[in-house]
């Protein structure tokens, strides 16, 4: 049995402060949510909508949220909305309905603009099912136990069969940690707590939670 996490991880989950913000493309305004769980529900509902315009808004919303702290957020969202077409969205909607397991390679094969590398493919997988999955981006991948399982390029993590296996391990590890916490938590909550620690330079603390898996 792995060691029981202490209060630090639970506190980090509660302290996670990446903005729970996306964009409402119907009302044409930024939309702030009271918690990440509320944002998760909102984007999940858009991604599973039978209306492809709502699906387009959900995918755009992931990009808006993911790039929120960058200066090129609006450019990336606008570029996506220019390039995506209805046929592409219909194929994506069908794939989302039958997606099985982690499904990263299948999501990459959809060739959705800007959803080709690990960071945003796993964001998409997470918002499609936030109860079961979590994100794997470059910041989290700096943790040694995870970094040792990944094959990286200079500036990004590619979606490959080997890296999908590493992602599966990551999801399972976050799920195990979530089950040991003195609070109701999902894999994505654990990942966000670890992200919070890494973001504040507490790499050793964060790595300690996953080093025994």
Question: What topology emerges from the helices and strands here?
Answer:
Elements: H1 7-15, E1 21-24, E2 29-32, H2 36-47, H3 52-66, H4 73-83, H5 86-98, H6 104-109, H7 118-128, H8 144-147, H9 161-180, H10 187-199, H11 203-210
Antiparallel strand pairs: 1-2
Helix pairs in contact: 1-10, 2-3, 3-4, 3-5, 3-7, 9-10, 10-11
- List how many beta strands DSSP finds: 2
Global geometry? globular
Strand content: under 5%
Order of helices and strands: HEEHHHHHHHHHH
Task: Please state the average pLDDT score.
Answer: 95
How many H/I helices? 11
Order of strands in the sheet with most strands: 1-2
Alpha-carbon distance between the termini?
Answer: 9 Å
Output the structural class: mainly alpha
Uncertain regions spanning at least 5 consecutive residues? 1-5
Number of domains: 2
Helix content: 55-70%
Cα-atom Rg, whole angstroms? 17 Å
- How many strands, which pairing sense, and closed or not: the largest β-sheet? 2 strands, antiparallel
């Amino acid at each position: 049995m792995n060691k029981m996490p202490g209060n630090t991880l639970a506190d980090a989950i509660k302290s996670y402060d990446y903005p729970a913000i996306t964009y409402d493309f119907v009302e044409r305004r930024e939309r702030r949510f009271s918690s990440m769980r509320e944002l998760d529900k909102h984007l999940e509902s858009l991604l599973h909508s039978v209306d492809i315009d709502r699906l387009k808004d959900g995918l755009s919303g992931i990009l808006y949220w993911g790039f929120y702290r960058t200066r090129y957020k609006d450019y990336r969202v606008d570029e996506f909305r220019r390039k995506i077409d209805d046929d592409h969205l219909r194929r994506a909607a069908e794939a989302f309905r039958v997606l099985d397991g982690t499904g990263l390679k299948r999501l990459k094969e959809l060739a959705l603009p800007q959803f080709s590398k690990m960071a945003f493919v796993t964001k998409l997988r997470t918002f499609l099912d936030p109860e079961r999955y979590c994100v794997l981006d470059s910041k989290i991948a700096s943790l040694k136990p995870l970094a040792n399982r990944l094959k990286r390029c200079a500036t990004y993590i590619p979606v490959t069969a080997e890296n999908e296996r590493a992602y599966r391990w990551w999801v399972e590890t976050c799920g195990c940690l979530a089950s040991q916490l003195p609070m109701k938590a999902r894999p994505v909550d654990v990942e966000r707590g670890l992200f919070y620690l890494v973001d504040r330079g507490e790499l050793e603390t964060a790595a300690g939670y996953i080093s025994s898996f």
